[in-house]
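pasting for the record
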Amino acid sequence: MLRRRTINTLTLITLVVLAIASFYYVIPFWIFVIVGLSWFLITLCGSFLIRWNYHYTSTHSNKNVSDNCIAITFDDGPHPEFTPQILKLLEKYGAKATFFCIGKNVEDHPALFKAIIAAGHTVGNHTYSHSKSFGFFSTERVVQELQKTNAIVQELIGKRMKLYRPAFAVTNPSIEKAVKQLQLDSIGWNVRSLDTTPRSSSSVLNRITCKVTKGDIVLLHDTSDKTVIVLEQLLLFLKERELKSVTVDHLLQLPAYV
């Protein structure tokens, strides 16, 4: 598995060796460029592909779980129109899920957030602003975002969240430091639905059902009609396969709150 520290060390060693060799041999400049470009591309991919665990480790599944279960997760809510529909479907099919909530949305819809908790679902931190430039925030600003969301939630339910899902799946050294400082558990996924893309509901559903198996974590978003349609069909599919949706903390045997 590629890790940032390993790649940085190998790149540095390679550049030093090339620099020393250049005193004795003619080393074309383009070789240095290729080494630097390779480092940049690997680091870029590692920053956006959360399952690489390039900057720090996130948990993406639990194939060793004893029960025949998976974890359905929702990002970006709570949403006043779609989250209630999703809660009704989950209740109808006896399923539990995990909602990684944006702090400002919790702030705007506290009653809806409490309804998620009251229904027995788990909640996690998905930053306060979900800013498109979150990947460029300093460690201090990342900490502020996560602390602000935790403070809002703690005021509502009296517990501090331990689970964190990176906005846009972006990881980097600043986010790594913030996660360690706040002692959060970073949660990824291994079944990505792509429900926020222009794909049809049938395409999104097929993308999930063709690969989901025991121990998987499924990524959805409680922000559209499409996801509501997909969710009901997915819950029917799980029922037929005798698979049960549980909360992430149950699947991974991690504490959700402190």
